[in-house]
């Protein structure tokens, strides 16, 4: 890990990786990697050097978690300014119904990938990559709570909010 990467937040690292390896899908390499990641199981995903580069940049040694992160990122086609939960709650009716959103945020670490993958088409596969990646890495009660407030465009009630890990 370079000195510059040590000072970056996880969301910044994830966005940089996504932009370089998958983002524009302009090259054959980007298209091929995206397709392989979307369709691969954990072992297949871990057979790709860019996935290991992402894991190393993040200091992540959990194979299942990095595979899950890479697969979800391969489904995102456009980096948006707004977070995925905010995009899912936009509109009247919302892009994703409150019941489907509730099932998404109740998902376990293992199931959140499928739930997000199924929700992405409702927002044209567009999400804030940094925010989404950090959420997948740190999928816990606090992340779920923040997603709920974000979905309904409300301010989360944390007195001492940590710095945003997605920036």
| Poorly predicted tracts of residues | none
Structural class: mainly alpha
Helicity range: 55-70%
Q: Mind telling me the C-alpha Rg?
A: 15 Å
What is the H/E order? HHHHHHEHHHEHH
The N- to C-terminal Cα distance equals: 19 Å
Portion in beta strands = under 5%
Inertia-based shape: globular
Q: Please tell me the overall pLDDT.
A: 91
The number of helical runs is: 11
Biggest pleated-sheet summary: 2 strands, parallel
Describe the protein's architecture and organization.
By secondary structure, the protein is mostly helical. Helix content is 61%, strand content 2%. The chain contains 11 helices and 2 strands, in the order ααααααβαααβαα. The chain has helices spanning 3-7, 10-23, 28-39, 42-45, 49-58, 63-75, 84-88, 98-105, 109-119, 129-137, 141-151; strands spanning 78-79, 126-127. It has a two-stranded parallel ribbon with strand order 1-2. Helix 2 packs across helix 10 (129-137). It is globular and about 40 Å long.
Brief digest:
The chain is mainly alpha-helical. It has helices spanning 3-7, 10-23, 28-39, 42-45, 49-58, 63-75, 84-88, 98-105, 109-119, 129-137, 141-151, and strands at 78-79, 126-127.
Defining key terms:
mainly alpha, 2 strands, single chain, 167 residues
């Amino acid at each position: 890990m370079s000195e510059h990467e040590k000072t970056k937040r996880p969301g910044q690292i994830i966005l940089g990786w996504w932009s370089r390896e998958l983002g524009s899908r302009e090259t054959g390499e980007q298209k091929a990697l995206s397709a392989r990641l979307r369709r691969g199981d954990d072992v297949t995903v871990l057979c790709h050097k860019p996935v290991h580069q992402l894991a190393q940049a993040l200091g992540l040694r959990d194979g299942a978690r990095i595979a899950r992160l890479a697969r979800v990122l391969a489904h995102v086609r456009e980096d948006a300014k707004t977070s995925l939960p905010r995009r899912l709650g936009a509109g009247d009716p919302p892009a994703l119904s409150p019941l489907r959103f509730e099932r998404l945020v109740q998902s376990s670490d293992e199931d959140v990938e499928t739930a997000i993958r199924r929700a992405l088409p409702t927002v044209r596969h567009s999400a804030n990559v940094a925010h989404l990646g950090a959420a997948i890495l740190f999928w816990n009660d606090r992340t779920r709570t923040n997603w709920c407030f974000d979905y309904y465009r409300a301010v989360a009630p944390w007195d001492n909010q940590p710095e945003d890990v997605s920036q």
